UniProtKB/TrEMBL annotation:
It comes from the Bacteria. It holds the Pfam family TctC. Belongs to the UPF0065 (bug) family. This is Tripartite-type tricarboxylate transporter, receptor component TctC. Residues 1-22 form the signal peptide. Keywords: Receptor, Signal.
Amino acid sequence: MRKALIALAAAASLMLAGAAHAEDWPTRPLTMINPFAAGGPNDVVARLFAQRMGEILGQSIVIENIGGAGGMSGADRVAKAPPDGYTFLQGTVGTQAQNQTLFKTPAYNSLTDFAPVALVVEAPLVLIARKDLPVNDMKEFVAYAKANKEKMQYGSAGTGSAIHLGCALVNMVAGLDVVHVPYRGANPAMQDLMSGRVDYLCDIITTAKPQIDAGTVKAIAILTKARSPVLPNVPTAIEQGFDVDAYTWNAFFLPKGTPEAIVRKLNQATVEAMKTPALRQKLEAAGLILVSEDRTTPEYLAKFVQSEIAKWVVPIKAGGISVE
């Protein structure tokens, strides 16, 4: 009996210590892992949020870029980090949803190895074509691709990238069978599209918009349910009769086992940052969509990731896409 009481007292002491630790958090700088190379669209989001969230929390947030394996290397670093709230992940549709099907043996389980914090932004994908492709809308594009499939190619930022899977979804819905050309990043893929070496690309709006505005590529369709405020004259694929809803997203995750009080505190800092006018203006100018406040809870993010995994299983398996 005495041993049982001692054990209970020890457990209670640990719980109180944990609660006190969570209440004081953070007492030192945090590290945000961006699981992609510096300079891309994800890096823009990371830097804007890190600065504002650091101001709100009273501690600086250092961004560490850990690329490799489609973002899996960086995400795995967070999955295996101490659950003390000082290391968190800027996850994406790739790291948390698509990779679970793409890789035969994922390094982590995105549903059980992380503590969801908040979904923050979505970035529509845009179907763009070389400027001299003789089409102007989805119906013309699909008809042309079916008639010329033997000589057409589409590019991507690499096998299994969000850009690749966006076009895989377009191809599946439209019944296209076109050769895929993977590049080592979105920039070389865009360069070859501009020079006419590939015929189309499903790019993230932040990098597609400048080329569309400059007339170096041709916009065929926004690949989300609603038109983009920054490209209001480009109709959606759905408007044009093709049921495609493809976008990337960014969300924050802590390692599993992180105290609930810390998860909530980081969530509150995230939501407060999202309400900052300067941050909103910069993100929206880039074509990014801040999610509504009812979609920013940890509970929503947990269900959202589950639904995204299920959504992307279909085009990945239909296209026979896998990454070793």
